[in-house]
Amino acid sequence: MDIKDFISRFKTHPVLFMGTGISLRYLNNTFSWDSLLKSVVIELCGNDEKYYDIKSKYHINGTCAFEKVASEIEAIFNSNLEKDRDGKFKEINDIFYENMRNGQNISRFKIYLAKLFSQYSLKDCMGDELKLLKQARKNIGSVITTNYDSFLENTFEFSTLIGN
């Protein structure tokens, strides 16, 4: 049985799980786990050495536990911004304190990432393929992603549900 025959037997639309690979394929300024976390540390510290110090602690048997690396970087990022209110990341601190005044406790690190991912651009060479991807939208039930960028939401014109 080929894939077309297999899929044609279903009476419902598929739910897609899409990760970072989709953003890396279509966007100019996006990141893998590794490159994202390294870029944050470089922006914060001025070089990549602290990143490699942290990463080395969570690199076991050829695999890196990036969620642990991210948690440690988040703690350092938040602490540094707390100590330097009006420094390089003043805008992030402004957003953090405005959120806190409104009863929303959102990590400075997550605010920074959201700001970083809100500014993406599409790769020119992917226009034809992107048109086909958009056409597939009518046959997709929903999309599940862990991506911070809004590329999929904008492409498929889906509403976002966070935390479900």
How would you describe this structure to a colleague?
The chain has 164 residues and is mainly alpha-helical. Helix content is 55%, strand content 7%. It has a two-stranded parallel ribbon with strand order 1-4. The chain has a two-stranded antiparallel sheet with strand order 2-3. Helix 4 crosses helix 5. The mean pLDDT is 90.
Number of strands: 4
**N-end to C-end Cα span:** 35 Å
Q: Uncertain spans, ≥5 residues at pLDDT below 50?
A: none
Overall 3D form? globular
Beta fraction of the residues?
A: 5-15%
Strand order of the largest sheet: 1-4
Measured as a percent range, the helix fraction is: 40-55%
Q: Output the helix-strand order.
A: HEHHHEEHHHHEH
Tally of helical runs? 9
In a few lines, what is going on in this structure?
This protein has helices spanning 3-8, 20-26, 33-45, 49-57, 66-83, 90-101, 108-117, 127-135, 151-156, and strands spanning 15-18, 59-60, 63-64, 142-145. It is mostly helical and 164 residues long.
Short key terms for the protein model shown above:
mainly alpha; 4 strands; 164 residues; two-stranded parallel sheet; two-stranded antiparallel sheet
